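Kindly inspect this today.
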Amino acid sequence: MTRETAISRATRHFDEGNFIEDLARRVAIRTESQIPESRPYMDVYLKDEITPAFDRMGFKTEILPNPVEGVGPILLAERIEDASLPTVLMYGHGDVIRGLEDQWRSGIGPWQLKQEGDKYYGRGTADNKGQHSVNMAAMQTVLDERGKLGFNVKFMLETGEELSSPGLKDFCEKHKARLRADVLIASDGPRLAAKKPTLYLGSRGCMNLNFTVELRDGGHHSGNWGGLLANPGVILAHALASIVTREGKVLVRDLLPKNIPGSVINALKNCTPTPEPDEPQIDPWWGEPGLSAAEKVYAWNTFEILAFRTGNPDNPVNAIPGKATATVQIRFVAGTDANTFIPILRKHLDDHGYQCIEISMARKSFMQATRLDPDNAWVRWAAESIRRTTGNAPAVLPNIGGSLPNDCFAETLGLPTLWVPHSYAGCSQHAPNEHALGSVLREGLQMMTGLFWDLGEQGLPLAKKS
């Protein structure tokens, strides 16, 4: 009964196919939160699949309603071994993005787990069923090996993350006393690179906006009206070009952070993004001049055009359209006030003669940016635990480039937040052909088993220091 035997047990759990069997069952449940008709599957996932797994580990479970009507429920599982022990809050989400069945390549699909070499295809393998399954299996492994965890756990699993987690902040506020803990340990998002274990401490925020130019109803024949009627598509294209250059530099400088903290610069010195051969390769000429690749994606704000529509792109006709729309996205780091984005853009457009463009939120809510100090004691402890297991020091990112509801934990609950991702950037999450790498899941199971083992031995003095 040692750390080494526990990690060996975790390795066998993967190699003998037990972990993949559990994941295949979970992937098959169509928990598409963006499709209202899939709402019943959220209950199936939490009640019939996840609750029994926690029951086997001696957790008490309760499925609670989301404060926002129409959004899937939230499961809270608790195992309190001793009130004097440290308490870990864990998090995951059981919902997935749309399946997009007709867009997957031949031979694979979203609802059936299929292995091809090191890749396991299926919706949720990377985001987030595979990741919270790793953490659950690691806890089960420690329990099987030691008979106890040596710490308390409160595990929260929501089913609305792909909707930007509506209601989660209110849920945390309402149940603040019940969710009291010493640290958050969770898994989502990608590693810095597939072969580089990673620890990150927060996330960039994310706000989606709609830009709309509506000049008239319907289209009008371009032969009769071309040169006489203003074209909303042309107007909107030029307006967007006044915000971001063709090289990706943001021209509206008030949207950007004032500077990058020194501790963040130091932390990112050894965190260069390194895509795998089958991943998209970095365009070094794109983005903010003078920043490293790591600083561009982990320490800076970006303005992206996600969609642009005018006329009928699927069946163009010889008519000047009456309307043009674009959905844009601002990813932003901690220290940026997202509530200023719309006023800043409104002023910029007005100053440049684009009063005809309307700006609105594309979603009712947005995710805030968070960042834990890389020098925090919990960070040093987790990094050392991962090094002991893998033999390599992990990349420590102050935050990832994507967005998560980490503000609910870091700000509402006031916790230090540690994220250990079990995916990689080329996983095609949110797209057809989503997959996880078996090598990353296997190593993730080993790492989390070691982390939980260490927490049971070292967590109490660490909790008192934090």
Q: What stands out?
A: The mean pLDDT is 95. The two ends are 29 Å apart (CA to CA).
